[in-house]
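Continuing the series of single-chain predictions for the mutant panel. This is the parent chain; the variants come on the following pages.
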Amino acid sequence: MKTRVLILLMFVLIALLSNVACRGREQAPVPAPAQPTMGQSQPQPTPAQNLVSPTSNQPTAQPPAGKAPTAAPTSPSSQADLVIADATVALTNNPNQVQIHIVARKQGNAAITAAFTIRWHPHQKDKTQVGCSQDFYNLTQTEWVVDCSYTYPANERGEMHWVAVVDAENDVKNESNENNNEKTGTITIASGGGQSPVPAGASYDLYVRRMDFMQPDPIVGQTIKLAVMIASDTRPSGAPYFPASYFRWRKGPSFAWQEESCPASTQYAQCTKTLEFSYTQPGDYAVEVEADNRKEIAESSETNNARSFTLTVKAQAGGQAPAAPTNCRTRVPTSGSVQIILDWDYSGQPAPSGFRIYQGTTSLEKTVGPNDKSATLSNLTRGVQYHFDVRAYNSAGESRANACSVDVTSPR
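Parent structure:
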């Protein structure tokens, strides 16, 4: 009996030892593959070991969370770029005068987004001095040409460093490169150059050389810039190249004249001013400029002092000027300061932004709101006859002039 029990215990012990040995083999770590020694090549995986086949649809790598994918760069050829393709400056028969030829071109497929200016400066270091300038509004072209001339003053001799610039005012905002808009060069003005002196006793001859409008298609309410150049091609011997003088201008025959002054110049035979104005209603306006309007300068000719240009002003897109007020009438107080009360009616369409009262046809006297149907006019002279005109206005323009007007004499 004891022998059987001992044999049974031995079998149990053997079974337990065998189980422990098997578990030990299952948990033993797998040894890392041996690293190749220096000089040995790394064994390449066999095709069966490749997890992704070269022809499989492998997913595209995604950007990190929170970071937008990088956009493909825009091709420079798809953007617009204005460049000076050619610029030549040559002497003429007059040793102080040069002839300028400039060619600007558009590169890229995109359209030019704004009107631009081509300028030529006689000195690279002084771009405030403009030899010639031209604005371009036809943006469907791919090439633009400027031909002009310039006369260097007598005190400027030797090698002159000039510069030609396209998009001089940086109006075109969609250029791919803003660093290639200029081209420079040199021209030698001989010692005999400079503005040729005129014979003793010769006179000035002032005239309007340029009238350059910055806006090609102005609309009602838009600020219009007009660059005016008054010049003289002759001068009395020993006198300044340009005399101290005045010129006047107006934005149409029905508007008042405005006067500007020009200083004397011992370097340039010209005076340049930029004028700003706008219109309240659409139509054609003959803009006029007259040199030496005071007739203070002795000139060889007085018949070429004036110049005009007809400007077409359009209504704002989709807009319509209001109808004219009706039944304009006046009331004159019998006591107190000199005043006139002006009344009117309005029932037209579209609704106005307000009403303007003009004295005469061009002098704005007062502006009132859209709900006002009366205005008191003060600071008048006793016993004087006045003509008042009431016009409704909005963003598209004004009602017709003199459709609602009155003549009245102020109290004596």
